[in-house]
Specification:
- Helix content is about 25%, strand content about 35%.
- The protein is globular.
C-alpha cells in the first residue's frame, strides 16, 4: 500500500490493488475483498474534512459492486462528520446501493445518541455479508 499527500488531497495513488486518497486529516484506502470493495477510513473526521471524505468515498465506489465502509481506524468523528455520513447513507438508500458500515470506538457513542441512524452497521469487515 502506498500513502501520499497532495495539495488537492483528492488525487488517488494506485498500487497493484489499492487506492489511497488523503482527505486533510483522514485517509481512505480502497481494496477488493471477495465480491466487495472495502473502503477503510483512518484518522479524524470533522467539519474541516467530512465533505472531502464523502467525496472520496463517492469516487471510490464502483457501480454495481457492494462496498464496506470500514471506520474502525477512525480516531475521532465530530457530530458534523456524523451528520455528513448520515446524509451519504440516505443517498445510498435512495439509490439502493449494497453497502455496510463497520464501526469503531469513535463512532459508537454517536450511534448510541442517535439510535435511529439507519446506517447498515455490521460487526466485522466481512465482504460476504448480504446487501443492504
Amino acid at each position: 500500500m502506498t500513502l501520499a499527500h497532495y495539495s488537492d488531497r483528492l488525487r488517488p495513488v494506485r498500487s497493484s490493488d489499492t487506492c489511497v486518497i488523503d482527505c486533510a486529516g483522514a485517509r481512505v484506502c480502497a481494496y477488493v475483498r471477495g465480491p466487495a470493495t472495502v473502503l477503510a477510513v483512518e484518522g479524524e473526521i470533522d467539519i474541516c474534512n467530512s465533505d472531502r471524505l464523502i467525496a472520496a468515498i463517492r469516487r471510490l465506489q464502483q457501480p454495481g459492486i457492494a462496498f464496506i465502509l470500514d471506520l474502525r481506524a477512525v480516531g475521532f468523528m465530530s457530530v458534523s462528520g456524523f451528520r455528513d455520513l448520515l446524509a451519504f447513507a440516505h443517498e445510498c438508500a435512495r439509490a439502493h446501493l449494497a453497502w455496510h458500515v463497520v464501526t469503531g470506538d469513535a463512532i459508537r457513542p454517536l450511534l448510541r445518541v442517535i439510535p435511529d441512524h439507519q446506517l447498515p452497521v455490521v460487526g466485522v469487515a466481512d465482504p460476504t455479508v448480504g446487501s443492504g
